[in-house]
């Protein structure tokens, strides 16, 4: 048994830390990839320095190259910069409708970015998925056909559009839209504004005035993914002059890698809420930071390779733990690192499953109330002990227990409960270990 386990550990043991040189080399590659993906230069610099900070000194995963490992770190940094990351991966940040009806949504952006199309897409989604009564209103009085374009889209989406009245200003149209929406009990009013080919004062004034008058719950900046480096200026200008609550990135069905998303998010701090992925009204997608990150970096294969290798290390650590349990050498220190592994590996019973002859005990352990808050509190309690106490909890006196409890934000009862649970577990492990030995004599690993 131990021979077999040692083999695994030899192959997977961390062989040290990533060096400056490893990181510098990989950083060059990463910088080029990000620039090719149209991420704005200041944002690239920022990401690269974050990566360097995190990568130098990181434990090396033996089965992948340092460069590959840095790429995985870059990927994690990108996911975070895009609003994702550990614990953030719940529902994508869709449009918020948490306001009194009718909820105004303002669509802003440069001409041709996809505002009108996206208005139709959002209307369709709100009608079909959220069962909302939606009114579309075009405030675009600059392009002759703009209001008709929105009317056509509204019909396709099966929602109402504000009747067109010639000669009104955007502000007048907006006021009329809100009035109609209140009178006819609409849930949502989508206000589609005009754009210009480039940012100008008149455009900003007009949008800002409409915003002040309607006080929209969401002000969505619509930006073409192909905009590349210009996305930063556009996003900054709109955010400073008008203020935005979210970003919709369109034309992700094209071959742009989507670096604009990263730049815009970095500059405005506003979340990317939706993606436009085609001309059809159905082509609206939720934003998933990890997907765009891997598209920007274009190294998805390497990222999953490293993830797999890291998982294997977790597994190897779990096996090491199982071996310790079997020898009856499991102490509170091990229990604490075990608590950290839970979540990554699934559960303690997952690790115990690696021990031979465990069936019945496993069920027993699963019944033991191992919920997450409890585990966290227990980890904190163990953290407040000295290493000596962790190896030999029997030396703990009442006064120490009190201090440990205080240090961990727990009660003395919590400390006692932990010690009792640990005692029970150790006893169980000793029994299991005997069973396991019998199992081994019958031949082999579990
Ligand atoms: P606006 O000037 O911002 O209102 O832009 P429009 O909504 O009129 O869109 C301009 C053009 O881009 C139209 O031909 C749309 O069909 C097209 N378009 C909009 N969104 C997307 C998208 O996500 N993907 C693709 N391929 N085309 C889009
Ligand atoms: Mg338009």
Automatic annotation (TrEMBL):
<comment type="function">
    <text>Involved in targeting and insertion of nascent membrane proteins into the cytoplasmic membrane. Binds to the hydrophobic signal sequence of the ribosome-nascent chain (RNC) as it emerges from the ribosomes. The SRP-RNC complex is then targeted to the cytoplasmic membrane where it interacts with the SRP receptor FtsY. Interaction with FtsY leads to the transfer of the RNC complex to the Sec translocase for insertion into the membrane, the hydrolysis of GTP by both Ffh and FtsY, and the dissociation of the SRP-FtsY complex into the individual components.</text>
</comment>
<feature type="binding site">
    <location>
        <begin position="250"/>
        <end position="253"/>
    </location>
    <ligand>
        <name>GTP</name>
    </ligand>
</feature>
<dbReference type="InterPro" id="IPR004780">
    <property type="entry name" value="SRP"/>
</dbReference>
<dbReference type="InterPro" id="IPR004125">
    <property type="entry name" value="Signal_recog_particle_SRP54_M"/>
</dbReference>
<feature type="binding site">
    <location>
        <begin position="192"/>
        <end position="196"/>
    </location>
    <ligand>
        <name>GTP</name>
    </ligand>
</feature>
<comment type="subunit">
    <text>Part of the signal recognition particle protein translocation system, which is composed of SRP and FtsY. SRP is a ribonucleoprotein composed of Ffh and a 4.5S RNA molecule.</text>
</comment>
<keyword id="KW-0378">Hydrolase</keyword>
<keyword id="KW-0733">Signal recognition particle</keyword>
<dbReference type="Pfam" id="PF02978">
    <property type="entry name" value="SRP_SPB"/>
</dbReference>
<keyword id="KW-0547">Nucleotide-binding</keyword>
<keyword id="KW-0694">RNA-binding</keyword>
<dbReference type="Pfam" id="PF02881">
    <property type="entry name" value="SRP54_N"/>
</dbReference>
<feature type="binding site">
    <location>
        <begin position="109"/>
        <end position="116"/>
    </location>
    <ligand>
        <name>GTP</name>
    </ligand>
</feature>
<dbReference type="Pfam" id="PF00448">
    <property type="entry name" value="SRP54"/>
</dbReference>
<feature type="domain" description="SRP54-type proteins GTP-binding">
    <location>
        <begin position="271"/>
        <end position="284"/>
    </location>
</feature>
<dbReference type="InterPro" id="IPR000897">
    <property type="entry name" value="SRP54_GTPase_dom"/>
</dbReference>
<dbReference type="InterPro" id="IPR022941">
    <property type="entry name" value="SRP54"/>
</dbReference>
<protein>
    <recommendedName>
        <fullName>Signal recognition particle protein</fullName>
        <ecNumber>3.6.5.4</ecNumber>
    </recommendedName>
</protein>
<dbReference type="InterPro" id="IPR013822">
    <property type="entry name" value="Signal_recog_particl_SRP54_hlx"/>
</dbReference>
<keyword id="KW-0963">Cytoplasm</keyword>
<dbReference type="InterPro" id="IPR003593">
    <property type="entry name" value="AAA+_ATPase"/>
</dbReference>
<dbReference type="InterPro" id="IPR042101">
    <property type="entry name" value="SRP54_N_sf"/>
</dbReference>
<dbReference type="InterPro" id="IPR036891">
    <property type="entry name" value="Signal_recog_part_SRP54_M_sf"/>
</dbReference>
<keyword id="KW-0342">GTP-binding</keyword>
<keyword id="KW-0687">Ribonucleoprotein</keyword>
<comment type="similarity">
    <text>Belongs to the GTP-binding SRP family. SRP54 subfamily.</text>
</comment>
<dbReference type="InterPro" id="IPR027417">
    <property type="entry name" value="P-loop_NTPase"/>
</dbReference>
């Amino acid at each position: 048994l131990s021979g077999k386990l040692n083999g695994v550990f030899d192959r997977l043991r961390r062989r040290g830390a990533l060096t400056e040189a490893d990181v510098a080399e990989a950083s060059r590659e990463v910088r080029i990839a990000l620039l090719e993906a149209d991420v704005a230069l200041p944002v690239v610099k920022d990401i690269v320095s974050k990566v360097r900070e995190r990568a130098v000194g990181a434990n090396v995963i033996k089965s992948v190259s340092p460069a590959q490992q840095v790429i995985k770190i870059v990927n994690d940094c990108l996911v975070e910069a895009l609003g994702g990351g550990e614990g953030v991966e719940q529902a994508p940040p869709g449009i918020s409708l948490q306001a009194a009806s009718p909820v105004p949504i303002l669509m802003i952006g440069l001409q041709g970015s996809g505002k009108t199309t996206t208005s139709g897409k959002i209307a369709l989604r709100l009608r079909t998925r959220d069962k909302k009564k939606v009114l579309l209103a075009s405030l675009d009085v600059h392009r002759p056909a703009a209001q008709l374009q929105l009317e056509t889209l509204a019909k396709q989406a099966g929602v109402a559009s504000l009747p067109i009245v010639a000669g009104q200003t955007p502000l007048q149209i907006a006021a009329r839209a809100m009035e109609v929406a209140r009178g006819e009990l609409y849930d949502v009013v989508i206000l589609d504004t005009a754009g210009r080919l480039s940012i100008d004062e008149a455009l900003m004034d007009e949008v800002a005035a409409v915003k002040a008058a309607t006080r929209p719950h969401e002000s969505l900046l619509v930006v073409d993914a192909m905009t590349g480096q210009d996305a930063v200026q556009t996003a900054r200008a709109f955010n400073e002059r008008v203020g935005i609550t979210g970003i919709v990135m369109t034309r992700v069905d094209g071959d742009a890698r989507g670096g604009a998303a990263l730049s815009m998010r970095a500059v405005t701090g506003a979340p990317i809420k939706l993606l436009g992925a085609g001309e059809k009204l159905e082509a609206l997608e939720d934003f998933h930071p990890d997907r765009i990150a891997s598209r920007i970096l274009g190294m998805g294969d390497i990222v999953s390779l490293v993830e797999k290798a890291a998982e294997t290390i977790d597994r190897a650590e779990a096996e090491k733990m199982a071996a310790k349990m079997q020898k009856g050498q499991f102490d509170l220190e091990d229990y604490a690192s075990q608590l950290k592994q839970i979540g990554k590996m699934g559960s303690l019973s997952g690790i115990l499953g690696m021990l031979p002859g465990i069936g019945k005990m496993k069920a027993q352990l699963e019944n033991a109330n191992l919920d997450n808050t409890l585990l966290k509190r227990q980890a904190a309690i163990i953290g407040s002990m000295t290493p000596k106490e962790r190896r030999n909890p029997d030396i703990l006196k009442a006064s120490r227990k009190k201090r440990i409890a205080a240090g961990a934000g727990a009660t003395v009862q919590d400390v006692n409960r932990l010690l009792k649970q640990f005692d029970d577990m150790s006893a169980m492990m000793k029994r299991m270990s005997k069973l396991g030995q019998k199992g081994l004599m019958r031949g082999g690993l579990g």
